[in-house]
Amino acid sequence: MSNTMSVGDIDYGTPARDSATLVTLDIDGRSVTVPEGTSVMRAAMEAGITIPKLCATDSLEPHGSCRLCMVEIEGRRGTPASCTTPVAPGMKVHTQNDRLGRLRRGVMELYISDHPLDCLTCPTNGNCELQDMAGAVGLRAVRYGFEGENHLKAEKDESNPYFTFDPSKCIVCSRCVRACGEVQGTFALTIDGRGFDSKVSPGALESFMDSECVSCGACVQACPTATLTEKSVIELGQPEHSVITTCAYCGVGCSFKAEMKGTTVVRMVPHKDGGANEGHSCVKGRFAWGYATHADRQTKPMVRDSIDEPWRVVSWEEAISFAAQRLMAVQAKYGRGSIGGITSSRCTNEEVYVVQKMIRAAFGNNNVDTCARVCHSPTGYGLKQTFGTSAGTQDFRSVDQADVILVIGANPTDGHPVFGSRMKKRLRQGAKLIVLDPRRIDLVRSPHVAATHHLQLQPGSNVAALNALAHVVVTEGLVARDFVTERCDPVEFTRWEAFIRDPRHSPEAVEEHTGIPAAELRAAARLYATGGNAAIYYGLGVTEHSQGSTAVMGMANLAMATGNIGRDGVGVNPLRGQNNVQGSCDMGSFPHELTGYRHVSDDVVRQQFEAVWNATLDSEPGLRIPNMFDAAVDGSFKGLFVQGEDIAQSDPNTQHVFAALRAMEIVVVQDLFLNETAAFAHVFLPGTSFLEKDGTFTNAERRINRVRPVMPSQTGKQEWEVVCELAAAMGYPMRYEHGSQIMDEIARLTPTFAGVSFAKLDRVGSVQWPCTDEDSVGTPIMHADGFVRGQGRFMITEYVPTPERASRFYPLILTTGRILSHYNVGAQTRRTANVAWHPEDILEIHAHDAEQRGIRDNDLVSIASRIGATTLRARISDRMPQGVVYTTFHHPVTGANVVTTDNSDWATNCPEYKVTAVQVTRSNHPSDWQIQRGAVVEVAAE
Ligand code: SF4
Ligand code: SF4
Ligand code: SF4
Ligand code: FES
């Protein structure tokens, strides 16, 4: 697969079929063999015979409305549409003759007679299927003229910030309507009216922005005319080349063709061959890339002696020397362990690898941690204990084979939208859905999708609910005995079975704690255990709890007990938040683990690294992020390197984080923007956006994708180069000529990556680790022939309620999450037009809780916990159960983490973001914290 390519893919007209039965037919005298169920149109296209078409495209099921693709089939009457006609053995098809030509020109005449003839100034000139088809059928005249009744004056809808809708150019092919339904699953568009009056309409004749549209862009991509067009194309013109790369937002890891004019991105088009997304995207990946060239980007290194001084722009040499001298001075004064660093799940594998290498080899300690600490560290722990590897078990495609889908603490349509669309497609095909979540997420009820069971549990009671599900499986005789006997450790199973059988885990016994009606929980357990292939998908609503790791093990127990591991359609699947959470963990970012999750105390492994790195490594695990903060406040931790992560906004108990950062003598921030953390930094090293990076990301399905630069680095350097220079300035030389050499070193030192190289990825597109040798193309489904650890291990999952309880003073429970239009701390998406959908964080509250407090929709409210208080706007929402409130943390001015506590997962210290006891009251002013942060104007506005 080449790096740079022309714009546009071959469109085969209808989707590929995967039948094992092959059919041979004759098209224009050529013998063609295709899978059964393939359309005549696709069979012709695959043989290199082009049939004119307008309403057909290979991302959608055929519709058969335009009649341009008609063909003759010997022995059949009339001229059937080739897009809707499946192939048959021995069929003889003629795609071109005088009669077909005449008929097609007639069809085109009708279209063109009601179409503006402004081709030369049309934004899609040169990339318009209508124009192409007029040429292809040889249209030379329009007998009807252009004076009749037409739609040429239809009004444009420019309400969406990213695309326009110009109905004067619409040919009512319904590709957009079908894309919105079939691919995206939102069903925001309809064809309103009949015959001549029929027109595309978002909702009940609303504008796009007022409709249910989620701006995924699938309709824009499907539109064969200029009716739906990206505003960037209107502004910049048609692209001239494209580069395949990977989205830098969520853990779905969608592949895109960045369509370019020189070094300017014209548009991002989801890549049809992208293993994770297969041609689909969400609003973030397709449209929200403008932050990369935003005026706020800092592209020059800066230093300052104290955080109270203004920044000084300096040369790279001066910044690196300043950082190195300060870090070494701190170590000389306070000891080798007084400094450390944090790697970023937004950076490439190669960038993360060099940072942890710098810390272990140049800093000389293991004080390296990653932002995954605060999201999916319990996943790593829980899945390693039970299955033997710290990663999800399936590829995304696997969901197509699931019969029962259990979604726990995840909101795929907002957090992982492209996978959410795939899941919805499977649900529309009939798979059953169980949602375990306090909040009524979209999946519970959306067009053509309804959960069979919504187990609306109390925040913090995941483990009790999971144990109760397992209790039903065990006590009602639903255990997959053969699977357990063959695949799992018998001693651990017997121990677990006795534990879970105890009546204290019954749905009835935990009903009061969980809030889930026992009968409903029993029914859900039976469905999961007996409904066919059952797959678990989960998110931070599982991990970000004081028992996050226990809950992960509870899900693994449930999957093993029912035999739902090791094949398509089943599994335990973490939906990763950031683009490279999986990769940053794989790359040895945890203080106790080298790459591939091998413990630093393992002498054999450590010696391999020492030999290749030419350094002596510490065999003791270093500090985790919360330990670093505590040690900073205590005065023993004095220096921090922070790679692409805004800990001052994203980590819990903001006041404590601020105190820790303020107590340090040297903080080095490597980032795109002067973020909240940079306010406490002494050195700012400008970073690169994904459009400048040359490396790899690893998505939630362990898929390693290439990230390719489409423009030169705005800072003049790759981030890994800067890290290498810093390590060298500290006396430990690290040299690579290219990112591929870093991957080669990773592969050399990491058995699960042994067969990975840039050259292979460029050749095959992507691979899912384990990829253990040159011939391997990776492992889509884990544990297929046995668990990685040998035998699956059932773990005891005692439920211990969180110490964070509602009380008279703090009677509500706050839980946090993200929304579709924003990403994490919002540093990127707030610098795009995505703010049109979500300009501020909102507190969702149940009507009863609001009424009790005299709160109306849109009121400013104060939210106070035992830790702190902040102010934001309220929205009365029927998604919330009584007693639970919800907000996002995308806007620093809101400071949602000012109220979250220090409670954390017992095994991994992942913070308990999902359970904070709070009180909510009406307010008319910002909180003290917001006033200190200078946020008065923004919050008090309106
Ligand atoms: S942008 Fe996506 S959600 Fe909106 S109408 Fe188009 S396909 Fe539907
Ligand atoms: S907007 Fe485009 S895709 Fe939709 S019906 Fe009109 S021409 Fe077809
Ligand atoms: S689903 Fe995730 S990876 Fe895909 S385009 Fe959206 S944000 Fe990017
Ligand atoms: S392309 Fe077949 S009917 Fe339109």
From TrEMBL:
One of its GO terms (molecular function) is formate dehydrogenase (NAD+) activity. Residues 21-99 form the 2Fe-2S ferredoxin-type domain. Residues 240-296 form the 4Fe-4S Mo/W bis-MGD-type domain. This is Formate dehydrogenase major subunit. Residues 99-138 form the 4Fe-4S His(Cys)3-ligated-type domain. It is an enzyme of class 1 (oxidoreductase). Belongs to the complex I 75 kDa subunit family. Keywords: 2Fe-2S, 4Fe-4S, Iron, Iron-sulfur, Metal-binding, Oxidoreductase, Repeat. It comes from Azospirillum rugosum. InterPro entries: 2Fe-2S_ferredoxin-like_sf (IPR036010), 2Fe-2S_ferredoxin-type (IPR001041), 4Fe4S_Fe-S-bd (IPR017896), 4Fe4S_Fe_S_CS (IPR017900), Asp_de-COase-like_dom_sf (IPR009010), Formate_Dh-H_N (IPR041924), Formate_DH_asu (IPR006478), MoPterin_dinucl-bd_dom (IPR006657). Residues 161-192, 205-233 form the 4Fe-4S ferredoxin-type domain. The keyword Membrane does not apply. Gene3D superfamilies: 2.40.40.20, 3.10.20.740, 3.30.70.20, 3.40.50.740, ADC-like domains (2.20.25.90), Dimethylsulfoxide Reductase, domain 2 (3.40.228.10).
